[in-house]
Amino acid sequence: TEAGQGIGGGDFCIITRPSHLGRLATDARVHFRVTRFIMEAGVKLGMRSIPIATACTIYHKFFCETNLDAYDPYLVAMSSIYLAGKVEEQHLRTRDIINVSNRYFNPGSEPLELDARFWELRDSIVQCELLMLRVLRFQVSFQHPHKYLLHYLLSLKNWLNRYSWQRTPIAVTAWALLRDSYHGGLCLHFRAQHIAVAVLFLALQVYGVEVPAEAEAEKPWWQVFSDDLTKPIIDNIVSDLIQIYTMDTELP
């Protein structure tokens, strides 16, 4: 892969050229499906939102460094869940990960017997985890937008009048947008603070809510939250989010 500088100041995995676009779109659809699996499996395993976000980020970062054809993405996903549990101190048993994954692909199936197939799969997850740690150079701890979004929502709640805040589910929508952003590679391309502001910006736009005194203010409200944020960065994050939702409508 080739390194490139993201608009948000982060590193992009690949510089997009016309010859790459078809392959990138195909890969993006695979990654969308697999991260949806990570999220659904994570919920069934009782994982908190931060460990799930870490699992998705580990997955995306691994395939930023390697070729999708070289590894089974669902095995990488299972190993990402396992590794994220360790990183975020929410330890998960490989047996539970295997059984939840098996039921995801075979709804209504019974838990796997502790036979040769089970132990082979368990060993594959452990070996894949070691490979991922080496590929990622043991850099598997990330700063997520969650704490920033919580802080920004509390500030915005104090700025808006009570009626505007209570009649529109801005907070719920912003959290949903943030969760859905992990279906794509936004977590690698943009800074955590910028993603947090952008999902809040989009949530306000969705419901047509304006921040009081915006016209008279010296700087826009979103720049108060993040000094180095620009409107083009917000636009690019929103555009990437919209692409994720477009992909969701196109996939079966």
UniProtKB/TrEMBL annotation:
Gene3D superfamilies: Cyclin-like (1.10.472.10). One of its GO terms (cellular component) is cyclin-dependent protein kinase holoenzyme complex. Residues 36-134 form the Cyclin-like domain. The keyword Cell membrane does not apply. Signal peptide: none annotated. Pfam families: Cyclin_N. It comes from the Eukaryota. One of its GO terms (biological process) is regulation of cell cycle G2/M phase transition. The keyword Acetylation applies. GO terms for molecular function: cyclin-dependent protein serine/threonine kinase regulator activity. Keywords: Acetylation, Cyclin. Belongs to the cyclin family. Cyclin-like FAM58 subfamily. This is Cyclin-Q. It comes from Prolemur simus. The gene is CCNQ.
